[in-house]
Protein 1
Amino acid sequence: EAGVTQSPTHLIKTRGQQATLRCSPISGHTSVYWYQQALGLGLQFLLWYDEGEERNRGNFPPRFSGRQFPNYSSELNVNALELEDSALYLCASSEIDRRQETQYFGPGTRLLVL
Amino acid sequence: GQQVMQIPQYQHVQEGEDFTTYCNSSTTLSNIQWYKQRPGGHPVFLIQLVKSGEVKKQKRLTFQFGEAKKNSSLHITATQTTDVGTYFCAGALLSSGSARQLTFGSGTQLTVLP
């Protein structure tokens, strides 16, 4: 069974630009979560999508947005990039239908803002 | 909102010494999960505890869930260099509704000195 995949693996942008990160969940998983992990720090919850809808949002500004597609894949968009947005962005998926909250993480996208 | 606190933030041990990380929730949990993130990697699910007072073992790792289902611990006996990484606990709220979200602790970064 294929795991959670994310693309690109690395992304370099300059301040003010926009970044788009993509995530494909494990087959059969309907929920997708996005986290930001700055170097050496913990997981900061960004967004949770399930069945195409945004279920919850972390304490991040509106320039962080996303969506979930009918095939349950997801996109995270970061507008007006700032230097402090440089981090590892992790996507995770889970099976909500069976009340299984266990999250399976992808390898992440390393975003560097110059 | 729900908070999950984890201590210590960092721990350096000599190889062969024991290690323990503690997790405390501000609210009663339905279950608690533990994840391990190796340096440069992504979090990987280790185990889930559901019952009050539950204890589970995985080789040298012992996981406990408190009687009140508000706290948990992970104990590693005789650490090895392969244990290096950040250990996260994650709690699922005991609440109604068909969808529940995990709240991650801040993680404990373990360094094992050879």
Note: Chain B has a mean pLDDT of 92.
Protein 2
Amino acid sequence: GENVEQHPSTLSVQEGDSAVIKCTYSDSASNYFPWYKQELGKRPQLIIDIRSNVGEKKDQRIAVTLNKTAKHFSLHITETQPEDSAVYFCAASSGTYKYIFGTGTRLKVLA
Amino acid sequence: DTEVTQTPKHLVMGMTNKKSLKCEQHMGHRAMYWYKQKAKKPPELMFVYSYEKLSINESVPSRFSPECPNSSLLNLHLHALQPEDSALYLCASRGQRQGRNTGELFFGEGSRLTVL
């Protein structure tokens, strides 16, 4: 069945360093790739998304890249801050109602 | 109003109880979701309603019964649950702009359910 692999499961970085989280999807029909941030005890919130007709998208310190050939997409956070500490989920959707979520990455930004 | 509101925030119930979780959004979104989330795991899809009709049921046990009374409300009726059903239950709606699906899921804060 369709799945999304996400790595690493945990990531610790020093404040100010960059963090990269990688996802690989299996369904070739996937055309929408959102990233959600979930702080402890809070709801998942969309932080950035990318569609299959675009290779890269940036929003201030956050960027997402997509390699359709390899079925990879990655989240890049630069100049990390303590408030970036959270669990990050990638997801893939083929335009239906279903979103296949990755297993999550727990990011810790050390002050 | 750009929020999905869920009640109650916390619920403790016995295995013989009947309870309901409620979800509300006033953003005009026509697709609404129930997800179950266990600790340190991603949200797991349970049900999707589109235009108030059940579109997806991910083989969820019948002790969970969804209901969509109108385009703004979504309920999840719970009966004869098991301890392993203890989890965070998240409601979400899918964004729309000018009648088109934006893809973004707007999640509520969730209802944390404990089954004793």
Note: DSSP finds no helices and eleven strands in chain A.
